[in-house]
Write the structure tokens for this entry.
Amino acid sequence: MSKAKIAEVFDSVQGEGIYLGEKQIFVRFFGCNLNCAYCDTKLDQFMEYEPHELVEEIKLYRDKYHSISFTGGEPLLCKDFLKEVFRLTAKGGHKHYLETNGTLVAELEELIGNIDFVAMDLKFPTSSGMGDLWDTHKKFLKVASQKEVFLKAIICEGTKEEDLQVAIKLIKEISPSSVLVLQPNSHEDPVFLHQKLSKYKEICKQAKVIACIIPQIHKLTGLK
Ligand code: SF4
């Protein structure tokens, strides 16, 4: 039986992206296959769960929720575990919301049938420092587009416009109705970033890509 390292399970409201403010149950997986320069989820504690143990814990949350957010780290690293969780929760009535770095294509292919929403990162090389992931992102977005998907890019002081142009091309080619969320790096100068983000939003508008600027609200409000 496949186990997973999970850092925390809790309920709160979504603090990022186009489902901002929706009430969710969060399952935060420990561990990631990337190491982004701006990462603020360097976790140091986890508990090991079997699939049925996670499902039992989820059942303790009895309010009305938009969905269960599987987040991280990178949840798709625990593909076999998630497959079993989805099987066990099939009649539970919860929708499944995947927050992902958009790199594990084969894993997504296996799970996409049981996912309702995909919140996919686009790792701009000049933001993340992770090198060129565009081909992988392209393949991933093709699979994710089977369901409702929006994209999220972290914009930093050092982000270059050439990355935005690649992202625009990719979105127009693969998933033209998907929204691109431009998210300022919360550790950098907000005034400088605001100007940059406004310019990037205008570039998207000219290119006919739907873009919006949404900061991480839970950091501004102190919400978990
Ligand atoms: S993908 Fe997300 S969790 Fe992984 S290193 Fe990058 S920012 Fe951190």
